[in-house]
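Throughout this chapter, every protein is written as a compact record of paired, labelled lines. An example of such a record is reproduced below:
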Amino acid sequence: MRVVRFSHNDAIRFGIVDETELVVLAGDPLFAGFETTGERVPLGEVALLAPVIPRSKIVCVGKNYRDHAAEMGGEAPEAPLLFLKPNTAVIGPGDAIVRPPQSERTDFEGELAVVIGRVAKNVPASAALDYVFGYTIGNDVTARDLQKSDGQWARAKGFDTFCPLGPAIETEFELDAGARIVTRVDGEVRQDGPISDMVHSVPDIIAYASAAFTLLPGDVILTGTPAGIGPFEAGQTVEVEITGLGTLRNTARNA
């Protein structure tokens, strides 16, 4: 199922995509399940929002593709390199990425995003996928110059609007189906790599993260980016496409 969060007639609701319509759900499916209201809304009449707003945290994995680690001047770490983004960084499809005045270089990083579906603590990798609600697309926007100058990543990756997510959560996405991440800036391909090139797999990341801190329903894990990261400017449009998940599109502006 493709689950979306949307605005229609001044109300924010959840729905399941059924071709050109949305089957309206009674509540947030992460907590209320998939009970429907009986209503249907034309997809073209709604504004899609970020499909999930994490109540707790966004867990990110750095240097999880060897080619990206190499372009950053290093090697992929032996264990997942974790950092956090605040939930205030989340925006949805079509929302503007705001380039902050503190930074002279703002970069895109297209990534597969995992949405946690139930409380996970000390989960073994063999059972980790049982805790996944679904998958969506993320963009780990980064103030690259601040990442270097600060010596840690919280500010550089945590600005408001620095975590676009969407357009939908796919509950039946297959990790081993050959999906690729393709990132474009104004239509020009900048990144193109298979998710199979991840150094640390989704189950291993969930196991490693849940051994450190409890993962809660609605938490999002960004699983790393392939090579080709680079800057974008105000007025440019960044598109991240993942096979089977659609395309997440955001245009940038200056603060």
Observations:
- The first helix runs from residue 29 to 32.
